[in-house]
Model the fold of this input.
Amino acid sequence: MDDRHDDRPDTRHESPPIMSGAEPITIQGSSPNSVGPAPVGPDPVLERLDRLSDLLLRRIDRLEERVRSLEQDNGEIINLLIAVKAGLEEASGDLIAQLEDAEDAAEADAGSEDGAEDGLLFETPSGPTMLH
Done:
């Protein structure tokens, strides 16, 4: 055996550089004597990514369900508003027609010779009323 002392540092714990283009790349955690990855089991980082992906997909599904529910609720509200608008237009049309009839009757009464009043031609609402 040779008793000469080697002054170079011991680099057996580091992996050898892998050449990619002009820059050497070292792989940490591998030994130069090992072949392939160590049989340790599933990678904890990949397991964590899988769990996070599943959690994200569940949250996205819940958000999509909530959006569909809100769209349905909004559609129902819009339909109700359209129905209320139609009811108000019909009621206002009826009131305008009654008002025009009352004006016509008032003009006829003013032109009549006896001047007697036949009574109210349309009902005036008294108290709180609700349109149907």
